[in-house]
Amino acid sequence: MLRQTQDNEEIIERVAALDIGKAEVVCCLRVPDEDHPGRRLQEVESYSTMTRSLLSMSDHLACLGVTRVVMEATSDYWKPAFYVLEAAGFETWLVNAKDVKHLPGRPKTDKLDAVWLCKVAERQMLRPSFVPPPQFRTLRDLTRYRADLVAARTAEKQRAEKLLEDACIKVSVVVSDLFGASGRDMMAALVAGERNPKVLAQLARRRMRSKITVLEEAFTGHFTDHHAFLLARMLGRVDAISADITDLDTRIEAEIAPFADVVARLDEIPGINLAAAHAILAEIGLDMTRFPTAGHLTSWARLAPGVKESAGKKKGKASTGHGNSYLARVLGNAAAAAGRTDTFLGERYRRIARRRGAQRAVVAISRSILVIIWHLLSDPGTQFCDLGSGFYASRIDPDRRKRNHIRQLEALGYTVTLQPAA
Hints:
Elements: E1 15-20, E2 24-32, E3 40-48, H1 51-63, E4 68-72, H2 78-87, E5 91-95, H3 110-122, H4 134-166, H5 171-174, H6 181-192, H7 197-201, H8 212-218, H9 225-256, H10 260-266, H11 274-284, H12 294-300, E6 309-310, E7 313-314, H13 325-338, H14 344-356, H15 358-378, H16 391-411
Parallel strand pairs: 1-4, 4-5
Antiparallel strand pairs: 1-2, 2-3, 6-7
């Protein structure tokens, strides 16, 4: 049966496409031929990626009445051209390179790439990628740099632990946080020249003082001046990175101040703290009209399982794919934290982890958290309400058990009629 589809054959009359490089941009533009109706005029020119050259290209496109400019997301090289054209008022689209593949056997050059991209764009066969507005780009730069600094600090702490292992100092076996107050005092004493295990063990504080005997054994090793020199450098780098993270937190709080009420509502979700809320807003912004449904948002974040089917059979496991790594990291940490809480998300995490494993549980809870965030951002009046850890036991489990029992009895040849007890 023939059915009507929602496809539109509309051609964009005046369109341009850019093949982005580090030093050069190849621009192909296509406009209607006024002398020959139904035909198109095409121009392919190369421009430098310097700002003046990009401004000249922008003026040329404006003179020819170009309305939409499309470019591939090539590393970070797309940003100068995108920002210049966006400021000039063009409808600027950033598209995924995977959506613009050449046909097999076609030659590949920068000019041919630009022409192909322009032809595909004028027929509206592309979808624009999500690019946050300028205010959230600034916030995104800050939160991403903070995440990179946290990772660098963690790596430096791991180097310090490896150095102590090389010196036969097994304090990390006894101390849960090597960079806590007690651990820092002990490492500072080692750098200062103290080698007596009993003196070092006495630096333990509070509950750790019950482990003094074990600490004395852990500090019995071969810590030399060579180790002290390296450890001092590592501790200095950890302190310097921590100071930079503190400065970044101050700047992020100033940037996020106009959205303090939104951050407070996101902070109510289990597993989400203030730093996570800042990072999530920086990655997805506030305008959820860009994502018509929660499913669109989770699909963009690559948290929805993919579909791979051929001849009626599903091929392999449904992978989510690779999406925004910064957003995935924040949501993964939030999901793991929510799994340790006595909430609906915590109980859901534990139920999935028992059946499918911890990794799949993290992805599932990350998706649930992102769905909650979409609803909170779509409706400013919405507040998060936890269903409680007993939701499954009180609502879902009874219905499931009832259905299972009915199926079992019907399989034995019985007709089941349910009558609620008085």
